Amino acid sequence: MSQKKQQEQRIDVEAAARILRDNDRGGYSVPTHGLYPFQWSWDSAITALGWMKIDEQRAWQEAETMFRGQWANGMVPHILFHKDAESYFPGPDIWGSNTAIPSSAISQPPVWATAIRIMYETCQNRALAEEKLGTLLPKLIAYHDWWYRERDPEDTGLVCSYHPWESGMDNSPAWDDPLDAVPEVDWTYQRRDLGHVDADQRPHKPQYDRYLYLVDFYKRHGFDSQYIYEHCPYKVIDVSIVSILQRASSDLLELCRHADYKSGVDELENELARTGTAINRLWSGKRHCFLNHDLMSGQPLDEVTTATVLPLFGGLADTDQAAGMCNLIGEWLAATKVGLSSTHPSSARYESQRYWRGPVWLHINWMIARGADDYGDPQLAERLRSSARDCVMTSGFWEYFDADTGDGCGGDNFTWTAAVALYWLAS
Ligand code: DGY
């Protein structure tokens, strides 16, 4: 289809809204039928932005349901297993966390405060938004406090991640080396993802063996934060988590100001300042982006992935760094058919359709476009948006898109793709 024809065509908002409704399980949305039958945290936050366009009450409910699963220590788990489902592995029995709502024992990129700020600022129903913000604010503060307290106990300014699943960018080549250092599980299991999606689009078994070793590790050590911090065999500074947390903390501060909410605000300001300085340790003048870092080997992880330019979204770059990243992104966009690919195509580990090793994820493209806009590059933001739009116009609402062809990959009728289309692409 020609570029002009695509531009003339409109995103099918009815189809996108239908996906949200079909994937609604009563107060929360599953990412897609079968492959992901529970509530995932960052999916859910992005989904709430889509709901906001069609049903504000339901959008707030998405957040309320997620925060009902918040742990006593403040963590918001990455999965809430609201109901049993045979179609997914590993389930709550493997995680073993024994929470009131069965859950996983790690978190996910903390995009919630950013989503809630957008919801609060764009709502039609102000009274509803004020009421919901009042109940959500203390929970958000507790969640951010958990990140800084438990994941940066030495106050370095850079929180760490204990699992590739925590990054949400599960199979990114950036995690290959730190994950290789993790032992493999010695028990057998049956993966369920391969029953839904082609094996070429999913992680390999040796990676799964290590994902499961880590899940087992937290359980064997009673989810003891101090022990895990000292002994977890996988400990990474993930630039995407650091950046998303930074933006979310600054959005949270803004929400606290609106609501005249004081508790925890000083601590949040201190953490923002600390991260603002510490991020410079990750800057690579050679790569023109911020590199992830392996805390076990003490080495930078030299892969250019979408994580490494997310400091644009986090407001963490200075002017020169931002210009360097915007140039890099411009050249990167030109190197694939649709963009922005999750791994730079010049990487030896780039695979255009395998999970997080190359494909395009629209919510990440939205974050980077938002960052480009903030740093004064609206043309780049528009290129990212139009390229994301091409994915949906050409292939529909897939989980992710082959960066070389634009073909849909992973799960179909995917909730966050529909939500991003409603929130960002249709407007
Ligand atoms: C999976 O099972 O693929 C998920 O990404 C884990 O969160």
Task: Describe, in plain words, how this protein is organized in 3D.
This protein has helices spanning 3-8, 13-22, 41-54, 56-68, 92-95, 112-122, 126-151, 164-167, 176-180, 205-220, 225-231, 239-259, 265-278, 311-314, 319-334, 362-374, 378-395, 415-425; strands at residues 39-40, 79-80, 236-237, 283-284, 289-290, 292-294, 299-301, 400-401, 408-409. The protein has 427 residues and is mainly α. The two termini are 21 Å apart. (2R)-2,3-dihydroxypropanoic acid is lined by residues 78, 165, 170, 193. The site of (2R)-2,3-dihydroxypropanoic acid has 4 residues, from loops.
Strand order of the largest sheet: 3-6-7
Which architecture would the CATH scheme give at its second level? Alpha/alpha barrel
Domains (count) = 1
For this structure, the CATH topology is Glycosyltransferase
Helical content stands at 40-55%
